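Exercise 7b. Backbone tokens:
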């Protein structure tokens, strides 16, 4: 079993420094790096299984999984208004400087994929291969509404069992996971608080800029479209879609194959938003693209 290493890097926002946590697997000095970035309220430990398999298959690889600021082991921002893609992208640029590599491959789930698109679209981007996990340049309105319902008012729990029941409910689209996998996905996004209560490990302040950013894109109930960003991407791109996803439609995937980087595509059966790469079939999709 490959040992995991946890580190922190100091990043800068307009209101000061904050620490971003990341875990790292594989050869510490390898120049061949895969960055895996999680979804809106998740954390880098979602990729534990994927990372361990990949560094066993590719001994010269490093897999680096950050906790985006406001989530996991990372600090919370003093001003929630900065919870947005420009800040996340700047933090990732700081992480890349810490890793001391010229190029990386990128796998992003949902929000992590949007950060990846933002970086991959830039001139002289360090991203040489991009995997978009159940996200693209059109964000489905139904998914936005579903996510917004639970984002701003996270509950607390009397026990880890209560917390797991909640995670199983809101994350049901992840698909058919084992009891052990559900417990892993729960334990990594909760923390103990006052009076023995258990709390979700993300800043509720991320809700306001999330809603504001979506409102800028158009009227409530409309899909969010980011085609100009996607069309600027030039690196080889793979889009992975959950078969029943409400965030990424088949129609959008077809268009992604025909414009911009002309992405390859794979659909994962019996999964919605989003595949978690916790079984061999899903990992094989990533392995083959990186190979």
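Sequence design result:
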């Amino acid at each position: 079993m490959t040992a995991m290493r946890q580190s922190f890097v100091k990043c800068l926002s307009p209101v000061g420094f904050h620490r971003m946590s990341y875990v790292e697997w594989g050869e510490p000095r390898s120049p061949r790096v895969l960055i895996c970035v999680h979804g809106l309220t998740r954390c880098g430990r979602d990729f534990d299984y994927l990372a361990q398999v990949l560094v066993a298959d590719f001994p010269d690889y490093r897999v680096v999984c950050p906790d985006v600021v406001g989530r996991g082991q990372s600090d919370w921002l003093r001003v929630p208004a900065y919870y947005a893609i420009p800040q996340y992208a700047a933090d990732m640029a700081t992480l890349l400087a810490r890793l001391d590599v010229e190029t990386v491959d990128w796998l992003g789930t949902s929000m992590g994929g949007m950060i990846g698109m933002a970086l991959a679209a830039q001139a002289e981007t360090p991203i040489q291969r991009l995997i978009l996990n159940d996200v693209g340049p059109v964000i489905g309105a139904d998914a936005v509404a579903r996510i917004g319902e639970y984002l701003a008012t996270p509950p607390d729990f009397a026990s880890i069992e209560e917390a797991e029941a909640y995670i199983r409910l809101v994350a049901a689209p992840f698909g058919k996971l084992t009891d052990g996998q559900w417990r892993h996905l729960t334990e990594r996004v909760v923390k103990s608080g006052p009076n023995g209560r258990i709390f979700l490990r993300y800043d509720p302040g991320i809700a306001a800029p999330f809603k504001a950013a979506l409102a800028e894109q158009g009227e409530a109930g409309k899909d969010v479209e980011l085609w100009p960003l996607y069309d600027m991407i030039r690196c080889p791109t793979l889009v992975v879609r959950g078969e029943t996803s409400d965030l990424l439609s088949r129609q959008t995937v077809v268009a992604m194959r025909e414009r911009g980087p002309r992405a390859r595509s794979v659909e994962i059966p019996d999964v919605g938003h989003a595949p978690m790469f916790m079984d061999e079939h899903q990992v094989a999709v990533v392995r083959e693209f990186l190979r």
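Instructor comment: Residues 27 and 158 are 40 Å apart (CA to CA). The chain has a mean pLDDT of 94.
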